[in-house]
Amino acid sequence: MIYHQSSRRKSSILAQKLAVFAQKKVRWITILSSLPLFGMVTAFGIVPDSLPHEVSGKKVIRSLHLPEKFATSDPDMTFWRQEGIRRGDTIAAILTRLEISQGDKNSFLDATRGNVAIDHLKPGEIIHAEVRSDGKLMALRYFYGNGEQFQAEKVNGEFELSEQSGKSNTRVQVGLGVISTSLFAAVDKAEMPSTIATQMIDIFSSSIDFHRDIQKGDHFTVIYESSRDESGRIQAGRILAVEFFNKGKSRKAVYFQVPGEKGEYYTPEGESLRKPFLMAPLKFSRISSGFSSGRFHPILKKWRAHRGVDYAAPTGVPVMATADGTVEYKGWQSGYGNLVVLKHNAQYSSAYGHLSGFDRRLQKGKQIKQGDIIGFVGSTGMATGPHLHYELRVNGVQRDPARIVMPAAQPISKKHYTAFRKESKELLSRLDLLRNASYASLN
What we know:
A hairpin with a 6-residue loop joins strand 14 and strand 15 (about 305). The strands form 6 sheets. Strands 13, 16, 18, 19, 20, 22, 24 and 25 form an 8-stranded antiparallel β-sheet that branches. A 5-stranded antiparallel β-sheet has the order 3-4-5-6-7. It has 3 domains: about 10-25 and about 65-165, Nuclear Transport Factor 2, Chain: A, CATH 3.10.450.350; about 170-275 and about 410-440, Nuclear Transport Factor 2, Chain: A, CATH 3.10.450.350; about 285-405, Glucose Permease (Domain IIA) (Distorted Sandwich). The protein is globular, with a radius of gyration of 24 Å. The protein is α+β, with helices and mostly antiparallel strands and about 450 residues long. It is built from 7 helices and 25 strands. The chain starts with 12 loop residues before the first helix and ends in an 8-residue tail after the last helix.
């Protein structure tokens, strides 16, 4: 999608735009906004008893052709393009959609290896790229929230990277919603950005199983930051406080940053919500087969124990490490196909099977952080379709993740507890006031 011309000569603007349209078909896709962003085919967080007609949509595709006389062979002509970040996206996938040349794609990936902003792309945000007509990447910009901007400029054939804080007006906003079909649909109905739903999933990922536990009537209240950048575009920032009612039980979280450390979310009592293990290794999926002592194997055609949890998802969806650890095994193993085994401590390990591929940085012995991408959903080994087979092993024996009580993370230290109580008091008071709002009016 073209939105801005970089040439100084005003007379060349129209020619450049028409040249881009002439080189390929332009497709316009309209997707109902209440569906998950960009229409990814998953069943994440769908309420079991919701009816299909409650979330419906229509996709319209039209192809436009322009005469060949508008084409240009000028290789130095540049134009700006933009691509939306989809859930589970990687920068490599986005560069492919932008039709960046393979050489520049490889150079950019090498230059940005380990960059936090690029490695943790935020769904719903936009990547802006200045591209030559021959596919050469000249510049790339990514506004990733709170006025923060990542920039890459090609200088003498090399990409120079920079990050800066743009001028923005930050304000605090509130929102509340009731789930009737899915969390994302409820957030959309409440006119909040989809990134708010993504953050809620991350915050409560160790205490709520968003694949199985979401029910119709669950509701939430959120206090979050928003900012307006120099272009006038409003972006959602981090959640400051949230209360989520699931199965009639209230869970609260408050953001707090210890000086000199990374901010985290805590309960009102100061207990950390960052548990040693995530509830699931995929953000967007559905459980197709649970942990069982007896299941009819679709390939072997006989009953046998299923010592893991299967998550159905499209091929290529990123798989996350559920806990900090070390890569113990990476490779092919019998019915598992492509398999990764992470060693977390002397007692716990986890396994991820049927992968279509591994993260390019993954190596045996490498230290892994919770939430790091280790591979991608596939159907290698004994699999009838794309899915992830996940196992949690205790002393080498597979155990049902839903039945194991994990140890809690360290709470806020006594040294910082007074500051935490002072900062969280106002936020928690606002959540209490909002809780009394009539949720019935949102149904």
